[in-house]
């Protein structure tokens, strides 16, 4: 009996030992495989996560693509070496702390308090803003000189067309997995929020950035065995480079000009006369893409926002009248100073007397153009405006591009209009429309592009801001060819285009633009002043559009100065002349 009992106990103990061994082996296998097997969408293992818990990391470069001008000059991205505090236990001795405080231009006590409070690595701005090279000199333990990629190094800018980036988790959640990396985009990744940053975002997204980490234990003591680690994504194709049509030097000079001439609100657009590419686009007030204030609206690009055009719209009316036969070259009109209908007066008291169509444009005679407006039908005016690129978005566009998605290069662009959709168009509306008032709205980009259209015998171009996207190795990822409308979309006739260009020259030689006869180039153009009422105040929207030099046109330019006091001098004309002088000097210099 006792023998049987011992035998049973032995069998039970043997079975228990077997199951215990199996359990231990299984648990060991699970622990090993969990440590080696990726547990996150990004492919991280438990071992890696454990190490990362001991590492205080900070991003040096997001890996996002960059913008360059037409000559390869960087528009975004500049290395800045900055001292970076890591949250380590035990602050350095007083002398080391004092030296660091001098570097970052901060009182030692303030630096000490800041360092004690941080929970994550903190980069400090230095007193020396020229920090593109690594400074020489030792730093205390827990501080490292690190190279940060600052996206917008210039600060204040009139380049609203470039835009800015921001964290947009709602957008990130809607993005597909990164095609190159095969991993989801991190939720904190910055994406385009406006401008080219937004319209080109699909090309600019990187496949991983550069991060640095500093090893600490659970009590934030530094771990020399781990030290500083840099993790980067090495790929021959990324980040990409977006080549714009902009000339950075001209853009910068025109931004300075707008500030020097106290253009508080307005825009300047410069286009290449040969194929309509945008060379510069300035929007005032300037803004800082590093510190966006959504509520103040400075980030909005006024160069593509529609405004009342005033007398520059008389070019459209002259084109419509000549194209339709409602007026003939050299036709004479009589201006007594009053149109005697609809409350329309000429700006010249007593009138111009007998005046030709060509003189009427040069002198910007309201009576001549009010009469022409009544001769034309709404359809004729609207069709001519559309043929010249008004009342529709004109920036470079593709219904389907590469991945099949629609692409508009120019963000925020407005279409403008000629007539309000709900308006009843009678004689009074036609007369006021002919003066560029009433419901007419035009963007500065459309106004400059209208001049390009005339210079090309009435053929309409779609202005580009981007010409191509290049991989890191210099090979081409995408190209955006020059686009011009053909066939029935070709615009107005070459004959009418030539007649209008001659009239624009007469504006300078004998009309409202005579002050520009002393310019470095021979110029041609048309001024405009639109009356608006804002907050009960009468204000003027001042325009000047044109081209130069007359003999071999190189640039088409539009200037808009907004919300000027009624009766003030025509600042837009003065700005236009200065812009053309800058362009002339740039051409001579190159």
From TrEMBL:
Belongs to the transpeptidase family. It is found in: Membrane. The keyword Transferase does not apply. One of its GO terms (molecular function) is peptidoglycan L,D-transpeptidase activity. SUPFAM superfamilies: beta-lactamase/transpeptidase-like, Penicillin binding protein dimerisation domain. The keyword Membrane applies. Residues 62-212 form the Penicillin-binding protein dimerisation domain. Its main location: membrane. This is Penicillin-binding protein 4B. InterPro entries: Beta-lactam/transpept, Beta-lactam/transpept-like, PBP_dimer, PBP_dimer_sf, PCN-bd_Tpept. One of its GO terms (cellular component) is plasma membrane. Residues 240-267 form a coiled coil. Residues 266-581 form the Penicillin-binding protein transpeptidase domain. It comes from the Bacteria. Keywords: Coiled coil, Membrane. GO terms for biological process: cell wall organization.
């Amino acid at each position: 009996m006792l023998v049987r009992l011992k035998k049973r106990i032995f069998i039970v103990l043997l079975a228990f030992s077997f199951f215990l061994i199996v359990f231990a082996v299984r648990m060991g296998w699970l622990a090993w495989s969990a440590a080696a097997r990726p547990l996150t969408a990004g492919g991280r293992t438990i071992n890696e996560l454990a190490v990362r818990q001991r590492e205080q990391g900070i991003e040096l470069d997001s890996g996002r693509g960059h913008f360059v001008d037409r000559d390869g000059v960087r528009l975004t991205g500049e290395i800045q070496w900055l001292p970076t505090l890591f949250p380590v236990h035990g602050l350095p001795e007083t002398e080391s702390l004092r030296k660091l405080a001098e570097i970052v231009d901060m009182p030692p006590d303030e630096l000490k308090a800041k360092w004690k409070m941080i929970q994550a690595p903190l980069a400090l701005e230095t007193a020396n803003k020229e920090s593109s090279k690594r400074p020489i000199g030792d730093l205390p333990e827990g501080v490292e000189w690190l190279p940060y990629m600052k996206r917008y190094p210039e600060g204040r800018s009139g380049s609203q067309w470039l835009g800015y980036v921001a964290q947009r988790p709602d957008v990130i959640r809607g993005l597909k997995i990164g095609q190159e990396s095969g991993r989801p985009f991190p939720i904190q990744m910055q994406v385009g929020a406006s401008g080219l940053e937004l319209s080109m975002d699909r090309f600019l997204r990187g496949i991983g950035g550069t991060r640095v980490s500093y090893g600490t234990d659970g009590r934030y003591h530094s771990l020399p065995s781990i030290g500083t680690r840099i993790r980067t994504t090495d790929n021959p194709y990324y980040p990409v480079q977006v080549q714009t049509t902009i000339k950075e030097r001209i853009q910068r000079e025109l931004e300075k000009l707008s500030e020097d001439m106290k253009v508080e609100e307005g825009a300047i657009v410069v286009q290449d006369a040969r194929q309509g590419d945008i060379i510069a686009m300035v929007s005032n007030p300037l803004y800082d893409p590093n510190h966006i204030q959504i509520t103040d609206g400075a980030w909005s690009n006024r160069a593509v926002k529609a405004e009342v055009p005033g007398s520059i719209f008389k070019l459209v009316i002259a084109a419509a009248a000549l194209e339709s036969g409602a007026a003939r070259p050299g036709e004479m009109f009589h201006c007594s100073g009053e149109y005697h209908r609809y409350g329309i007066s000429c700006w010249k008291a007593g009138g111009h007397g007998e005046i030709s169509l060509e003189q009427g444009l040069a002198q910007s005679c309201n009576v001549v153009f009010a009469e022409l407006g009544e001769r034309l039908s709404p359809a004729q005016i609207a069709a001519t405006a559309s043929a010249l690129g008004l009342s529709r978005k004109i920036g470079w566009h593709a219904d389907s591009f590469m991945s099949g998605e629609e692409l508009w290069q120019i963000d925020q662009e407005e279409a403008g209009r000629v007539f309000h959709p709900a308006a009843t168009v009678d004689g009074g509306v036609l007369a006021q429309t002919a003066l560029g008032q009433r419901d007419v709205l035009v963007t500065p980009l459309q106004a400059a592009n209208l001049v390009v259209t005339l210079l090309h015998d009435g053929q309409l171009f779609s202005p580009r801001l981007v010409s191509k996207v290049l991989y890191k190795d210099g090979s081409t990822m995408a190209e955006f060819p020059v686009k011009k409308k053909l066939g029935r979309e070709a615009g107005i006739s070459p004959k009418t285009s030539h007649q209008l260009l001659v009239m624009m020259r007469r504006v300078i030689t004998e009309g409202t633009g005579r002050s520009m006869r002393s310019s470095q180039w021979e110029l041609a153009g048309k001024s405009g002043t639109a009356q608006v009422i804002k907050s009960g105040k009468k204000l003027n929207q001042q325009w000047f559009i044109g081209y130069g030099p007359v003999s071999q046109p190189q640039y088409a330019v539009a200037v808009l100065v907004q919300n000027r006091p009624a009766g003030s001098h025509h600042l837009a004309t003065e700005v236009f002349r200065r812009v053309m002088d800058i362009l002339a000097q740039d051409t001579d210099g190159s």
